[in-house]
Amino acid sequence: MSIITKWFNFGRNEYYDSGIRLFDRGSYREAAEAFAKCLANCTDPSTSRLARFYMGECHSQLGLAALRSDDYKTAATEFELAAEVHPKYPDLRLNLARAYGFLGEVDKEREELNAALELNPRYAEAVIYQAICWIQQGNLDDARARLEYATSINPNLLGKQFDFAMEKLEHGDISRAIANLRALTSGEPGDANYHAALADGYLKEQRLEDAVSEYEKALSIAPNYADIRCRYGQALLECDQLEEAAKQFRTAIGINPKYADAYAQLGVSLKRQGQDADARVHFKKACELDPHHPIANIELQRR
């Protein structure tokens, strides 16, 4: 069962319930269709907000699958649909930029990359992607400066692969430099994204200790990745480690002060500790950043 569903105890609409079951099984196409039917038939605003949230997540997952399969047109379409629901998710904007880049739509690529960096200027992966774009344009001096900035944000990017990429860049082997820079954020086994994805699966299966362990491995590689830190906090919430969960959400906010979900999850952790007034402050902040955020909206309606 998903964390949001468990926390809010929803079961008010047959299409929503079907969508959640399909989502938790990884059947994202069918889940998106179920959530769309929920939105067309549901009269409860809270359930509709959750259905809309999950529909965006479904399209994001479908976009990632298409990106991995080199189906860039489908990836762009799915990320566009997801961005309609989650316009303030920097990782989603970056993935949309990637899809546009592979399609050769340079203006759209630049627009989405700029949006990702506006949402989170300290998003190391987006900074590296910007550097790659500048390398391709022949703007090597600015690209080097951006790469230096990316490694200052996340020193764990430094290593043999980064050094090799910089060496190739200095010697004019642009293709190999770019290939190695892309590999730093590729999500291949052994990097932060791999461990985070494994943790996500464990969390769905309620293998909480395994999930916590994998998130910690991911953060040992990429400590400044706000999204992974927030998901780690959610796992700690599931384990009733409320103070440590709140610490992780605060850290995620420190990395990305515009991260609506981190504010909302921090609100949940504070509320469960009996700090209702402080929780409400963070729910309001989440809604300022993302007016459609399901957790924050629902909590602000509660007395």
Number of helices: 18
* Helical content class: over 70%
Strand content: under 5%
CA radius of gyration is 20 Å
Mean of residue pLDDT values? 86
> How many angstroms separate the termini?
26 Å
Sheet of most strands: none
Order of helices and strands: HHHHHHHHHHHHHHHHHH
Low-confidence stretches: none
Structural class, by secondary structure, is mainly alpha
| CA-based shape | globular
Number of E strands: 0
Describe the structure.
The chain has 303 residues and is an all-alpha fold. It is 78% helix and 0% strand. It is built from 18 helices and no strands. The protein has helices spanning 3-8, 14-25, 28-41, 45-68, 72-85, 90-103, 106-119, 124-136, 140-153, 160-170, 174-183, 192-204, 208-221, 226-238, 242-255, 260-272, 276-289, 294-301. Helix 14 (226-238) runs antiparallel to helix 15 and helix 14 runs parallel beside helix 16 (260-272).
At a glance:
This protein is mainly α and 303 residues long. The chain has helices at 3-8, 14-25, 28-41, 45-68, 72-85, 90-103, 106-119, 124-136, 140-153, 160-170, 174-183, 192-204, 208-221, 226-238, 242-255, 260-272, 276-289, 294-301.
Describe the secondary-structure layout.
Blueprint: H1 3-8, H2 14-25, H3 28-41, H4 45-68, H5 72-85, H6 90-103, H7 106-119, H8 124-136, H9 140-153, H10 160-170, H11 174-183, H12 192-204, H13 208-221, H14 226-238, H15 242-255, H16 260-272, H17 276-289, H18 294-301
Helix pairs in contact: 2-3, 2-4, 3-4, 4-5, 4-18, 5-6, 6-7, 8-9, 8-11, 10-11, 12-13, 13-14, 14-15, 14-16, 15-16, 16-17, 17-18
